[in-house]
UniProtKB/TrEMBL annotation:
<feature type="region of interest" description="Disordered">
    <location>
        <begin position="256"/>
        <end position="288"/>
    </location>
</feature>
<dbReference type="InterPro" id="IPR045214">
    <property type="entry name" value="Surf1/Surf4"/>
</dbReference>
<protein>
    <recommendedName>
        <fullName>SURF1-like protein</fullName>
    </recommendedName>
</protein>
<feature type="transmembrane region" description="Helical">
    <location>
        <begin position="223"/>
        <end position="241"/>
    </location>
</feature>
<keyword id="KW-0812">Transmembrane</keyword>
<keyword id="KW-0472">Membrane</keyword>
<dbReference type="InterPro" id="IPR002994">
    <property type="entry name" value="Surf1/Shy1"/>
</dbReference>
<keyword id="KW-1133">Transmembrane helix</keyword>
<comment type="similarity">
    <text>Belongs to the SURF1 family.</text>
</comment>
<dbReference type="GO" id="GO:0005886">
    <property type="term" value="C:plasma membrane"/>
</dbReference>
<keyword id="KW-1003">Cell membrane</keyword>
<dbReference type="Pfam" id="PF02104">
    <property type="entry name" value="SURF1"/>
</dbReference>
<feature type="transmembrane region" description="Helical">
    <location>
        <begin position="17"/>
        <end position="39"/>
    </location>
</feature>
Length: 288
């Protein structure tokens, strides 16, 4: 067997393999880092979900706190029981159509409470009724000064609206200060509470967790992205070894003379021996 002119693995020093190795060295840590980050986000949501369950259980037994102590609304204050004293604005009753409670479609009954001593009004969801939004089915809001307790909620956004587009007068797409400032001639807080002890026939609206918290669909998307990034990292490793093995086998075959059309010096072509060179020099062609 002829000696090799160089190592079978000299192909690793070619520019193409420098690029392949550099890509693998960058891609694998990036994929692992992104997968770990997505997993940490899922873990945070699991922890937050557990905290919300514990908080809900504690809030059911806790006394209501003044609203001013819970503002501004944060992830820590959403879900806490708030109390505020004032008078309902009976001149501007509002309904929020196409809202589902316990898998039944209906509408929220919304009233604005103007606190004593002035200040911005607070939206209060006094309850929910099944069916189509109809103001004639709604009991009137209490008159005079009242103290209202309810679970503090973050403002909704347009994607929470059950009915997109224009609505009849007296109806609102979502509960937030943004649409309310166009309905009433005074300021409105960008937060709301849902009463849990309602007038008949109103039913209480269950409080909801703020967006991007708890075990919602986005949480499981994070878990899916975690698996995806780790699969990408494994795929890069698999393809690198596959290319490496194929290239090494090709170079070894070329070094043994099994692939006459294989790579040249980079793959390690065999060197001619001195005896073979002498034989060629004594051939008729060499004499000529």
């Amino acid at each position: 067997m002829w000696p090799y002119c160089g190592s079978v693995y000299r192909f690793l020093l070619t520019p193409r393999w420098w690029a392949i190795n550099l890509f693998a060295l960058v891609a694998i840590p990036v994929c692992v880092l992104m997968g770990s980050w997505q997993l940490s986000r899922f873990d945070d949501r699991v922890d937050r979900h557990q905290e919300q369950r514990e908080q809900s259980s504690a809030e059911a037994r806790a006394e209501a706190r003044p609203l001013r102590e819970l503002l501004p609304v944060t992830q820590d204050t959403v879900g806490r029981t708030a109390a505020v004293t004032g008078r309902f604005d009976t001149a501007h009753p509002l309904l929020v159509p196409d809202r589902t409670v316990e898998e039944k479609r209906g509408f929220y009954v919304l009233s604005l409470l103007r606190p004593e001593g002035g200040g911005k009004a607070l939206p209060v969801v006094r309850g929910w009724l099944p069916g189509t939004a109809d103001p004639h089915r709604v009991p009137a809001a209490p008159e005079g000064e009242v103290t209202v307790t309810g679970v503090l909620q973050a403002p909704e956004s347009q994607h929470d609206a059950g009915t997109p587009g224009a609505l009849p007068e007296g109806q609102l797409g979502f509960v937030s200060a943004a649409p309310l400032v166009n309905v009433v001639p005074y300021g409105v807080r960008d937060a709301w509470i849902t009463e849990q002890h309602t007038q008949r026939p109103l039913r209480p609206v269950p409080p909801v967790a703020p967006d991007n918290t708890g075990l919602d669909m986005k949480a499981f998307q994070n878990l899916g992205y975690t698996a995806q990034w780790f699969v990408f990292a494994g795929f890069v490793v698999f393809m690198w070894f596959r290319f490496f093995r194929r290239e090494a086998e090709t170079a070894a075959d070329a070094a043994l003379g099994l692939t006459p059309d294989g790579p040249e010096a980079d793959a390690g072509l065999p060197c001619p021996s001195a005896e073979d060179a002498a034989t060629r020099s004594r051939s008729p062609a060499g004499s000529a």
